[in-house]
Predict the structure of superoxide dismutase.
Amino acid sequence: MCSAHYTLCFQMERKQGEVDHLELELDRPIPLTDKERVMIQDSWAKVYQNCEDVGVAILIRLFVNFPSSKQYFSQFKHIEDTRELEQSSQLRKHAHRIMNAINTLVENLDNSEKMASVLKLVGKAHALRHNVDPVYFKILSGVILEVLGEEFPEDVTPAVGSAWTKLLATLCCSLKAVYEEVGWTPQSASTG
Ligand code: HEM
């Protein structure tokens, strides 16, 4: 159900070949090289200067292209108007939280213990408190790659994009491992 749903969502946006490719890329964590760490940190410095706008743009893209991802947010799950969504304080707060968490990961690319502890907290909160299907982390990762590539074409070159794909694969795989550790099952989710 998980991966079928994911594929279905992505078919709205992408060609099947690209879906398979991205799904595969996000499915296995590959260690970053030193050069890739620098590429991520340099490009993130630019992105983080526009933290609020980029965070909101990412979430708007997620919620407009994949409306089922809104189901978890009590305050805007029924809102369809993009401008109204943009004004939602719950959305803006979550955008801020995501950007902060990514910032901590980027600042600690060479500290795997710190990265694991951040991702453990995020995974536990989403599995146990918010009951979010982990498929949405992959969907969000695809959206992040897309928005960064479009908004920062000079900084996010294909090589930089591929370094980011590796980092997001680590994020998705670590969160999946936390979900497994806490015994989350698709049946327990309300995927409405
Ligand atoms: C990189 C991915 C993400 C990060 C770093 C992140 C981060 C966070 C953090 C730090 C919180 C507060 C945690 C807490 O309740 O203690 C939070 C809350 C939440 N997140 Fe995420 N999140 C991510 C992706 C998602 C996705 C994909 C969804 C669902 C589609 C989601 C749904 C929620 C919901 C429903 C809440 C509670 C919101 C509220 O109470 O206002 N998150 N997130």
Observations:
- The two ends are 12 Å apart (CA to CA).
- The chain has one domain: 2-188.
- Residues 69, 72-73, 90, 94, 97-98, 101, 122, 125-126, 129-130, 132, 136-137, 140 surround protoporphyrin IX containing FE (CB under 6 Å).
